[in-house]
Specification:
The protein is of the alpha/beta class. It has helices at 44-55, 75-86, 102-117, 133-137, 159-163, 169-180, 199-207, 233-248; strands at residues 11-17, 20-27, 32-36, 59-63, 122-127, 143-149, 185-190, 211-216. It has a single domain, classed as Alpha/Beta hydrolase fold, catalytic domain (Rossmann fold), CATH 3.40.50. The chain is built from 8 helices and 8 strands; from the N terminus they run βββαβααβαβααβαβα. It has an 8-stranded mixed β-sheet with strand order 1-2-4-3-5-6-7-8, with helices on both faces. The longest helix has 16 residues, at 102-117. It is globular and about 45 Å long.
């Protein structure tokens, strides 16, 4: 695995769990945060956001799950990656009421990072295609600060899928229990983003005050990636403040 220039200074590694191995990139010191990239992969904008988290005093691990690390988030790159994801058994693209098989691997990664850096727990950020994975990881008690950024799976086709959180009923009950015990969930999206369907309404109904909802005003059609390609300073500030409050305050 050879790092592109945009990842200079990041330590390359791998993580194996659940019969799966994926490359990882790590940088920083302090409490841990797992940054799960969006489609089409670890773009320069994803790296820039991860660098901001590092600069705020955290150890960041980015797993490389698909795409080409460092490749720009062009339409061509998206079109190259998405068909492969549709047949990848690690992900649940259309099915409602199911947790993607990759969730177990991500929980293991979060658990390992927490064991390594200590603290009250780790943060996890999921974005777009991986937005709901932050919820799936908080089934593990090592995750203390889950951030759901414009969650887009299952694909928002039909009323049921638009509202679905990408969790099995058992995992949803565990998430609700953890929230009831004080583990809040932060959600950020652009208001009216069709890719997120009605998932924020579902989260609000299921988690109550434990869901910290941020609806950003949209400057026009097509705004989606709150932390990266269509970066909102308010969204980034809210995420960093959430991590400080949950991971650095004790």
């Amino acid at each position: 695995m050879t790092s592109p220039p945009v990842l200079d200074g990041w330590e390359e590694g791998t993580h194996t769990a659940e019969g799966r191995t994926h490359p990882t990139y790590r940088r920083g010191t302090g409490p841990g945060v797992v940054v799960i990239h969006e489609v089409p992969g670890i773009t320069p904008e994803v790296v820039a956001f991860a660098e901001e988290v590092v600069g705020a005093g955290f150890t960041v691990v980015m797993p490389h799950l698909f795409g080409t690390p460092g490749a720009p988030g062009t339409v061509g790159e998206v079109l190259r990656v998405v068909p492969r994801l549709c047949v990848n058994r690690e992900f649940t693209i259309l099915a409602a009421g199911r947790t993607s098989p990759l969730a177990g691997w991500l929980r293991s990664l979060a658990r390992e990072l927490h064991q390594d850096v200590g603290g009250p727990g780790v943060g996890v950020v999921g974005m777009c295609f991986t937005g709901g994975f932050a919820l799936a990881t908080m089934v593990d008690p090592s995750v203390a600060a889950p951030v759901v950024a414009q969650p887009s799976l299952p694909m928002a086709v039909g009323r049921r899928r638009k509202a679905d959180l990408g969790l099995s009923p058992a995992d949803l009950e565990t998430v609700k229990s953890r929230v009831a015990q004080g583990c809040s969930v932060l959600g950020v999206r652009y208001d009216g983003d069709p890719a997120t369907g009605t998932r924020f309404e579902t989260l609000q109904r299921e988690l109550g005050d434990g869901f910290l909802r941020v609806d950003l005003p949209s400057a026009g059609r097509g705004q989606h990636a709150t932390l990266t390609a269509h970066r909102s300073q308010e969204a980034v500030d809210r995420v960093l403040a959430f991590f400080r409050q949950r991971l650095q305050s004790s």
